[in-house]
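Lab manual, section 2.4: Encoding a predicted structure.

Procedure: take the sequence of the chain (251 residues), apply the prediction step described in section 2.3, and record the output as structure tokens. A sample record is shown.
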Amino acid sequence: MYRKLLLVSLLLCSALQAQVAVVNAASFATNQGVAAGSWAAAFVTVGGLTTATATTLPFPTTLGGVRLTVNGIAAPLFDVRQITAQQAQVTFLVPAGVTAGLQPVAVTAPTTSTNGTVRIISAAPGIFEKEGTNPPKGAIINQSGIENSAALPAKKGEVISIYGTGPGAFKTAYTDGVAPGAAPLVETKSTPQVFISGVVAEVKYSGLNPSSPGLWQINVVVPNLAFITGKVPVSIFIDGVDSNQVAVFVQ
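Recorded output:
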């Protein structure tokens, strides 16, 4: 995973020459913005950071001596790490209150501060990836509750849970960095289209995972069609924006 982060970091630095460059933490797409309330990765031109990962909820706004703000609003942080001598990566939750448009990002470290910008858009769907194949295996759980894999494929007609970030607006307000809970469930305002092997799958639920801040969970029925078998592509479309493509294994 961090090999991918390094490659993305080098690409961003060579292409943008920015002190802070922000991408979707699920897709790492360099050609689109990020959505408020979503997980993002900031690649920061800075050295000497101490690696740290948040282990409790709510997620802190200072981690390893690092603080990140978007348009002046402190962002909950999940992970801070040095990936090269002069490049660090900060995984953070874009504050839900940030408005659309080009917004300033400031990263304060123990010995220095750096600044950049991020483009906030209404929706920026990304599906979390589990490995580097093409397409990569998605972060997907079978109806039985076990992780989807070649050895443990989903069955046609069953419900799978796809995990991503960046669906845009929600029907219910929630607090940044806090587990949203299930009373009520925090559902997306728009219903996504989920394509499994090019076929639109029936969506049963689209909203935040009750236990995990910023984690978008989409429960869908695997179409009961004979040709959908083996390793097949999955993608999501919401509010006019496509996600990255991942794979699911179907029996």
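Check your result against the sample. Confidence is low (pLDDT under 50) at residues 5-17.
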